[in-house]
Amino acid sequence: RALTNIGNLLLETGEDEAAEGYYRRALDLNPDYPGAHHNLAVVQRRQRKLGASVRSLKTSQRLAVRQASAQGREDAKER
Fold it and tell me: What's the average model confidence in pLDDT over 47-73?
């Protein structure tokens, strides 16, 4: 998450390429982190890489749903 946050700061200052690098580094460490995929989609959209942006956004959404479902199953087991 720290790498993603650095990417967010860079994105806010208009350093899109540097931000993308941090998001990709975060995904190298944790490819199942939906937040990094979502932020990568944002920077790709700003760079007009629309196809890549849509793929990153879909990956983010898919991972978020999968993780929420897994958390729901764990919560149900605890009851």
Answer: 93
pTM, two decimal places: 0.86
Query: Burial, 7: exposed, middle or buried (Cβ in 10 Å; 0-12, 13-18, 19+)?
Result: buried
Q: How many CB atoms neighbour CB 68 within 10 A?
A: 11
The single-letter DSSP state of residue 33 is -
Residue 76 contacts residue 68 (beta carbons within 8 Å): no
pLDDT value at 41 more than 80: yes
> Where do the structural domains in the chain lie, given as residue ranges?
2-78
CATH code of the region 2-78: 1.25.40.10
